Amino acid sequence: MRYIPNSPEERAEMLAAIGLKSADELFRSIPKAVQLGRSLEITEPLAEPEVIAAMEDMAAKNTASQKPSFLGAGVYSHYSPTVVDHLIQRSEFFTSYTPYQP
């Protein structure tokens, strides 16, 4: 899933387009009993490699990951920024001769 951030101005514009003043109005149909009602307890912003390292630390707590696995047939794990996937799918990087090939 891709994350596309919106500025506060853009969010206000989108809400105005549907006739609302706030996100609370947007979610008013959700019963208060099932709403969180407090701020999320999240960390400070992290760079992508830091997020990956944190996720790997959590995954290391799974004992199954400590046993040998031969899945992948020799393909090793390596870091590739998620922006690479987005960039290689851009139409500017395809040629007119082979549109299926970046």
Mind sketching the topology for me?
Elements: H1 8-17, H2 23-26, H3 48-60, H4 82-88
Would you write up a description of this structure?
The protein is mainly alpha-helical. It has 4 helices and no strands. The longest helix has 13 residues, at about 50-60.
Q: Estimate the strand proportion.
A: under 5%
Percent of residues in helices comes to 25-40%
The unreliable regions are none
The overall average pLDDT, rounded, is: 81
CA distance, first residue to last residue: 21 Å
Order of helices and strands: HHHH
Number of helices: 4
Shape designation: flat
The number of strands is: 0
Rg result: 21 Å
For the biggest sheet, the summary is: none
Structural class: mainly alpha
In short:
The chain is mostly helical and 102 residues long. It is 33% helix and 0% strand.
What characteristics describe this protein?
mainly alpha; 33% helix; 0% strand; 102 residues; 4 helices
